[in-house]
Amino acid sequence: MTISPLPLRPHERIHTKANGSIDTPPRVPTPVHNFGTLAVHAGAHLDPSTGAVISPISLSTTYAQTAVGKPIGAYEYSRSSNPNRDNFEEAIAALEHARYALAFSSGSATTATILQSLAAGSHVVSVSDVYGGTHRYFTKVAAAHGVEVTFSPSLEVDIAQLIRPKDTKLIWIESPSNPTLRLVDIRNVASVAHKHGIMVVVDNTFLSPYVQNPLDHGADIVVHSVTKYINGHSDVVMGVAAFNSDDLKERLTFLQNAIGAVPSAFDCWLAHRGLKTLHLRAKEASHNATSVAMALEASPHVISVNYPGIKSHPHRHIAIKQHRDGMGGGMLSFRIKGGHAAAERFCQNTSIFVLAESLGGVESLVEVPSSMTHAGIPQAQREAAGVFEDLVRISCGIEDAEDLKRDVLQALEKAVVAPKITNGRPDGRVTNGLPNGD
Ligand SMILES: *Cc1c(COP(=O)(O)O)cnc(C)c1O
To answer: Same fold for the domain at 10-275 and the one at 280-435?
Structure first.
């Protein structure tokens, strides 16, 4: 390997490690730097052989050894570790104020690996309105491994009663919840849990590390579906967990390798690229969601709006305490007048918002949870959690706020007003020749 002759700045000088391998010292970021600096620089190492500013994608599955058991560099086999995954994990650890991060092939694989780390006979307490796939794993898979999960719609109130002194090992929080955007005071739950030696996990997918850092509020593990805000471009399925404990690092690294639900080097590279603009995207999405939420709240065609970034939200005080600058994030939901049919018509009449599941990408999306993301939950249970047939969920992207607002208002007119006036077509579309998004 030849060392690059490029003129490097002092902090970028390439060093030769004691074992002869070449390394670049850590780039600028340290915990004293702010989010944007960390997002751009953490884990972004210069390529020691060429000086490339952007890491090459290390597609090799295996790495040469100079003697038996003596790899040339830090790597042996790509499932166990590879440079692109290391770089991505380093960046996430910096952004979540964690010592360690481990990446997985999906958010769901992250959840599964954490649950697998619990011994048979363990008990878990979870918020009721967790992500559908998490609910499915908790109820259909964890049980087969002898791990029992109890759900609570009001974790903060019930926590002390739900803990089984010997068996409860983990508390699972999603804040905000999906799709009703309820918040949980992480600090309150963690202080009760820690008295009993119980670990707290927070799924931070809906806010991203830019808006909320659960470890700062007492959580032991923060998990993300990287698929959403962190990658942010709707082209990678991936997950990550971040934490501080050495014991967790050992157990979860062992399982990451043993179970093998690891992301590809290419996906790690893409997600790392996406992450470098997370602060810009999350800020813009939050700004857009605030504009849309306020426009919806002022509309006579809307029953209620769930958005933690505005005053009417019942947990606004938690958002102010727990979120960066009290931001609400890019997700919101609302109940439309006219029932399920109006909710469907709304989603079919937006022209910028795309009717699709998922969230957290640069493009705005819209969906009806009762027939799409949450269709698997029985109606009574769904409605008890506030997921009514007329609920519409919105993921705000980073388009122009005024355009998004106008799109939502015109779709409301078509979904709620037009059918009354025109005795609308059965599909509720108006025939005035305007583009309607399909
Ligand atoms: C999407 C999502 C998951 C699952 O992540 P995948 O990457 O799709 O496996 C978990 N939690 C939340 C809140 C999500 O939105």
So the answer is: no
The residues lining ligand 1, judged by C-beta closer than 6 Å to any ligand atom, are: 106-108, 131, 133-134, 174, 178, 203, 205-206, 225, 227-228, 237, 239
237 Cα nearest atom in ligand 1 = 7
Please report, for the chain, the start and end positions of each structural domain, with discontinuous segments joined by +: 10-275, 280-435
Beta sheet of 391-395, edge-to-edge order = 302-306, 331-336, 391-395, 365-367, 354-355
Encode pLDDT of 210-253 as tens digits: 999 999 999 999 999 999 999 999 999 999 999 999 999 999 99
Query: Strand runs (DSSP E) across 219-308, as ranges?
Result: 221-225, 239-243, 302-306
Distance from the CA of 53 to the center of ligand 1, in angstroms? Answer: 31
At the top level of CATH, the class of 10-275 is alpha beta
Instruction: Report the residue among 128, 173, 174, 227 best suited for mutation to probe ligand 1: largest number of ligand atoms under 8 A from its CB.
Output: 227
Counting as low any pLDDT under 70, the low residues of the chain are 1-31, 422-438
Among protein residues, the one with the nearest Cα to ligand 1's atom 8 is 107
Is residue 178 within 8 A of residue 382, CB to CB? The reply is: no
Cα–ligand 1 centroid distance for 103 (angstroms) = 14
**In the numeric block, which tokens belong to residue 205?**
């997918």
**Distance between Cα 351 and ligand 1 center (Å):** 26
133 vs 205: CA distance, rounded Å: 13
Topology of domain 280-435 in CATH is: Aspartate Aminotransferase, domain 1 (3.90.1150)
Distances (CA, A) of 66 to 73, 83, 361: 10, 19, 44
Work out whether strand 70-71 and strand 221-225 pair parallel, antiparallel, or are unpaired. unpaired
pLDDT digits (tens, 9 = 90+) for 4-54: 333 333 333 344 444 445 555 555 566 679 999 999 999 999 988 899 999
